[in-house]
Amino acid sequence: MENEKTGMRKVLYLLLAFCVAVAIWFFVDETGDRTIEMEITDIPILYMGQDTVLADRGLMLQDEGTDTTMDVTVQGKRTTVAWMNSSSIRVLVDLRDITAAGEQRISTQVSVVPQFSGSVQVTDRSISMATVNISELYSKTVEVKCELVGNVAEGYNAGQLQMSHSSIEIWGRQDVIDQVAYAKVKLNIGSATGSISETLAAQYYTVDGEVLENAGIRTTVEQIQVSLPVFVTKELRLTMNYIDAPGARLRSMRPHLDPETIMVSGPAEVLRDRETIVLGDFDLLSVGNTESTHTYGITVPDGCTNLSGVTRSTLTISYPDKTTARVVTDRIRFDNAPEGKNLDVQMPEVVVTVFGTEADVAAISGEHITLVADLSDYGSALGSYAIPATVEIDSGGDIGVTGEYEIQVIIREPGDEPEPPEDDQIAAMNPEEDGEEGEET
C-alpha cells in the first residue's frame, strides 16, 4: 500500500516538473531575442513609368506575359515578423529605361515599409529580375456620345447639349482598341427645371452597343464636362422706373408703352423669378399738360432671346389734369437766426408758383405756404442779404413748386435804422415763372 502511495507521489512530481519546464520554455520564447524567418507571398509588383515615359515613346506594358507578383523571405524578431503581410513589402520595377518593344528582364527593387524598416531584413526573393512584355502603343480617336436619362419638366425645353470633348484619343492593345466603336457618358437630368452641368467618366462600347469592361483602355481625357441648358419661354411686361415728386405723381399721369410686353426665351434659372423688363428712368417732373413720346431700347436679360422681334418701345405720357397757379404768401420763417440781432424783411410778401391737380391747386392759399430761410451762416453778419429759401406747403394736397426763391433781409444791431429796399431788390423777390402762365391767388 505504501509503495502505491510512493508511486503516485512520483507521478505528481513528474507532471509538476513538466508543467514548469513548459512554462519556462514559453517565457523564454516570448521574452527572449529570438530571430526567425518568414516567407511573404503574392506581393504585387508596381511598375513605374508605364503611363508617362512609355506612353511618350509609343510603348505600353502588356498584362499578358508580365510578372505581377513575387514572394519574399524576411528575417527579424519573432514578435515583429509576426505582424507582417504582403502590404509590408514594396516591390518596384522601373520602366523608364525601356526604349523598344518585346519581352525584357528588369531588376526588381525590394524594400520594407517604414514601420518595419531597420528591424527586418529581406533575405531572399522568388525572382530578382521581373519579366515585362512591352508592346507598341496602338491608338485611335473615337466619338464621344451622351445619353440623356429623364426629361425636362412641362413648360420647359432643353437647349443644345454641350460637351467639353466631342472625341477622345484612346490607346491600348490593338485587339482591344479595335473593338471600341465609341465612348459614351450618361447625363441624368431627372425632371429638370434648370440648366444642368456635370463631370462624367466615359465608358467604351463595341459596334453592337456592348460595354467593354476593364479592357485596359487608356486615354488622356478621363472626365467629360457635359452641360444641358434648360430654357423657358415667358411673356415679360415692359415698364419704366418712374421718378415722382410732389405734384407729379404717376397716379395723376396717363402713361402708355407700346408694346407693353414681349416674349422672351432664356435659361430657366434666369427667367424663373423674372416678370418685367425695366426700360430706364423717367422723371415725372418733365411731363406737361400736352402729350409727349419717348423711345427706349429693349434689353433682354443676359443669355435670353427676344422672340417678339421688337427692339424698341415707345412711351406716350401726359398729365391732363395739371394746373399751375401763382399764390401770394406773407408767411416767412427764419431758422437759426443770430441772437441779439434785428431782422427786417425787405419784401414781406412773395409770389410762389405751384402746380398739381385742379382740385389740389384750388384748395391752396397763401396760408398754406411758408418760405423758410436758414441763417446758420450769418451769425456775425450785418447788412442786407438775399437768403435762399425753401418752400413748405401744408395744404394736405399733392402740390409741387417751380422756381427758386430768396428772401431779402437786413441784419442789424438793435437801434440801427433799416434802409429802404432798392427797386431791383423788390423785383427779385417776385420772379416771373419762365415759360408757364397761371393765375394769381
List the main descriptive attributes of the protein structure presented here.
441 residues; mainly beta; five-stranded mixed beta sheet; 7 helices; elongated; disordered C terminus
Describe the structure.
The protein is mainly beta and 441 residues long. It has helices at residues 2-31, 53-56, 78-81, 174-177, 268-271, 358-362, 423-428; strands at 35-48, 59-62, 69-77, 89-94, 102-107, 109-112, 120-125, 129-136, 138-152, 156-158, 162-163, 167-172, 182-192, 196-201, 203-205, 218-219, 223-228, 230-243, 256-258, 261-267, 276-283, 292-297, 305-306, 312-317, 322-329, 332-335, 342-345, 350-357, 369-374, 383-393, 400-402, 405-412, 439-440. The strands form 8 sheets. A 5-stranded mixed β-sheet has the order 6-4-1-3-7. Strands 15-13-9-12-16 form a 5-stranded mixed β-sheet. Strands 10, 18, 20, 21 and 23 form a 5-stranded mixed β-sheet that branches. Strand 29 and strand 30 (383-393) form a beta hairpin.
Strand order of the largest sheet: 6-4-1-3-7
Mean pLDDT: 85
- Beta strands, count: 33
Largest sheet: 5 strands, mixed
Q: Tell me the strand percentage band.
A: over 45%
- Specify the overall morphology: elongated
Low-confidence stretches: 431-441
Span of the ends, CA to CA: 155 Å
Structural class: mainly beta
Radius of gyration: 49 Å
Our count of helices gives 7
